Amino acid sequence: MPELPEVETTVRGLARFLDGARITRVQLNRPDLRRPFPADLVQVLTGATITGLSRRAKYGLVHLDRDATMIFHLGMSGRWRIDPAAAEPHDHLLLETEAHRFVLCDPRRFGSVDLVASAALEQWPQFAALGPEPLGPGLTPAHLKAALKGKVQSIKLCLLDQRIVAGLGNIYVCEALWRAGIRPTKPAGKVTGPQLARLVPAIVAVLEAAIRDGGSTLRDYAAPSGELGYFASSFDVYGREGAPCHRADGGVIARIAQGGRSTWFCPICQK
Which is catalytic among the residues 101, 187, 261, 267? Predict the structure, then answer.
């Protein structure tokens, strides 16, 4: 599943071509993805000018001059293609401007497209319960201390809770916990103040590094330009079971299951 850096990379890639452009044509090739396309999507988008693009958690936002915002989620396998040479069987939504064609391709159809009044974005149910953005000012050691107080659930699973931090996924939580030297199985309420002080900048650093590198090439992920991300080559723990820890501390990367997902960590340096 595309995580925050992949969505951010996608939004930035689309913005290069879509920001300020007028949508001249919209075509739906099926009635739904994970849920039905909005009934008025074609009508609202056609002729609208895009005033900007942004991201909230793992959602991409396309802001229109009609007090409406199109929100897309890439699900497990979704990606945008710009000026594709040929159609693909799983191209479900087409947007055209005077200069380019944009196609949302989603083979597994776990993605979604919604249309929300721009003034009501924060009240949209999927956004209303979200925690702070990990790259925004709201993610602080003090926020985490308050949100994790008394929790016996592991720090790894708490960081995946979108109500605590919006947009974090399995890959980057594993990487951030390694950078901060925190064992992923540690009860969240017992993570110390000094550990939280290390964790916040670790989260920011790993996400920013992944965005600079264009995201991670996992399964079907690709930026709108078609270029594949290469942050995967920089993983310190994710997918490295049995490999030596990059800290050269004698540790060997281990893999365990948490909440139905794999977790990778170093048993030596993560306490």
Answer: 261
Q: Supply the pTM of this predicted model.
A: 0.90
Catalytic residue from among 56, 58, 179, 240: 58
The verdict on whether 2 is a catalytic residue reads yes
SS3 47: coil
Query: CB under 8 Å to 44, separation ≥6 — which residues?
Result: 38, 64, 66, 68, 115
Residue length of the chain: 271
Active-site residue, 58 included: yes
What are 57-71's pLDDT values in tens digits?
999 999 999 999 999
Contact present, 101 and 91 (Cβ < 8 Å): no
* pLDDT one-digit tens code per residue, 33-50: 999 999 999 999 999 999
Which H or E run includes 126? helix 125-128
